[in-house]
Every structure is written in C-alpha cells, then in structure tokens.
Design goal:
single chain; 282 residues; globular; 8 helices; 12 strands; alpha+beta
Length: 282
C-alpha cells in the first residue's frame, strides 16, 4: 500500500523507498479513509512482527522494517478499524478502515514454475467492494484508487500465466466498480495503466519465437485458451523492463468524454483536477 502508485495520490516524499514515511502521511496528514492492501512490514518497526510472521518460508527476506514506530497502533489511536484477514474485513464497520493482508506482497513474482505464486488472502474485487461500502458514507463524495500490482510484477518476470491471472482479478474489480457506477450514475470510472511492461505481443501459437535475444526470461508463453472459442493464443516478450508503448484508457460516467484522444499521461491528472475542483485550478 505504500509503493509508488498509491503513494502518488496521498503522500509526498523525496524517495519512493521511504515507505514508512508514506504510511505515516496516509494516516496523519492525508488522512485517507480506506487503506486496503499489503506491506505490513513498513507499518511495524524492526523486531516487532505484526500479524504475519517475519521471514516466512515463501520469502525469508521479508521482515518488519518500519522507521516511524508502530503505525498500526497509531492508526487505531486515530480512529481506524484495523483488519488482517478476509473475515475481519467482511465484519469491519466504521468510516476509517486500515487493512494489511501480507508482509510485503500478496504474491511471489518469479518465472513460471520457479516458486511463482498468486494467492491473495483477500482478493482485489473483495477489497474494492468493501471500499465502495465504506467510502459513500461521506456525503461529499469520494476518490478511490484500485491497483493490481501483480500485472506489472509478473510482466517483469515474463510470467504470462500469472500476469493473465492478475489481469482477471483487475477485470473483476472493474466489474465491481461498474456495478456501483450503474447504481450511482454520478460516478466516473477510469481504467488505465501508467506504462506497459515486457514489450508484450499476442501471437498465434506455433510461430517463430522472437524472444531469443537474451533480453527475456521465458521467451514465448502459452498456448492460452480464448474464452468461448476453440482457438488459442501465445504471449511473446521482448524485454523484462517497462517500455514506451501507448497504453489504453477507458472511461464511463460524467466527464468520460474528456479522456478521448492521445496525450501524455500527465494530462490525466490535469483533467481529474479540473473535474474535481473546477477548470483553472492549479
């Protein structure tokens, strides 16, 4: 929860690695109402493991490493309900909610068959649904950011099968948001990425594998089934890094027409600011 994407919306630090500083800003300065995700290690000081034990078998390097004291206890003092499991999340009530469901990541991002795992304690659509149960209690409205980080991380590892699995979780979370927006037509829903990762190409299976240049881990992945079809497809990677390829954006709801076109990604910020605060606000 204190990694780059969510932090960009609710914190200001000189370095993205200052994750305990970011967590502290969430609860003391930005006062974010709902914080759900993972990264418990940055909320507890070294030597003080939280609900999830230090040095777990799936990744022994994970351990509490917070630099700002016990931020979970601080959050409770500030009125947050703290939850750690799916059952606790389901039962939680109130207008301020903090949920941390793993030490650092909700998955193990590795090449296929090398200890790669995607088994979240709480699914992204369930977190999205809970956030949309809590946030509308504020009659002034709300702004919600939902991120599926595994899409990027699995692409860095050229792990096609788990990248697809993470994408399906995002798809289900978007469905939750769309259902809410249909019941509340004053809601704007945006779906987009901050960048492409992996130089990904979708291909017909059985063709030439163009990935054999030493820049990828797994080369071609697949074949994968196409829904409601007997056909299949393959994924071909060209890098393990981010690329400058254009990414799509879809939008529904009031103001959606403002996002038509091709533009630098920073323009999205400007449009959102104008929609939230009125034109000309800087």
């Amino acid at each position: 929860m204190t990694d780059a994407t969510p932090a960009a919306f609710a914190a200001h630090t000189a370095n993205r690695s200052a994750q305990s500083d970011i967590a502290k800003q969430y609860i003391e300065q930005s006062q974010v109402d709902v914080v759900l995700g993972v990264g418990e290690d940055y909320w507890y000081p070294a030597g003080n493991p939280g609900y999830y034990p230090d040095h777990p078998a799936e990744d022994p390097e994970e351990a509490s490493k917070g630099t700002q004291g016990n931020l979970v206890e601080r959050a409770k003092q500030l009125g947050y309900t703290y939850v750690r499991t799916a059952d606790e999340l389901k039962q939680a009530s109130g207008r301020k909610l903090l949920g941390l469901f793993a030490n650092e990541e909700i998955f193990q991002q590795r090449p296929e068959g090398e200890g790669d795992v995607y088994n979240p304690v709480v699914s992204l659509p369930d977190m999205t649904k809970k956030a949309l149960d809590v946030l509308p209690q504020n009659k002034k409205g709300f702004f919600l950011v939902v991120e599926e980080e595994a899409i990027d991380e699995m692409s860095h590892e050229n792990n096609g099968s788990l990248m697809i699995k993470a994408g399906q979780q995002l798809d289900q979370a978007v469905a939750v948001a769309k259902q809410y927006a249909k019941r509340h037509p004053d809601t704007l829903v945006l779906v987009l990425a901050d960048h492409e990762c992996g130089g990904l190409t979708i291909e017909t299976p059985g063709g030439t594998d163009e990935s054999g240049d030493g820049k990828t881990i797994s080369g071609e992945d697949g074949p994968f089934a196409i829904a409601r079809s007997s056909q299949t497809f393959a994924l071909d990677w060209t890098t393990t890094s981010h690329t400058a390829a254009d990414v799509p954006l879809t939008a529904m709801g009031p103001g959606a027409e403002r996002f038509v076109g091709v533009y630098e990604n920073k323009r999205i910020h400007d449009i959102l600011e104008e929609l939230l605060f009125g034109k000309g606000r800087r």
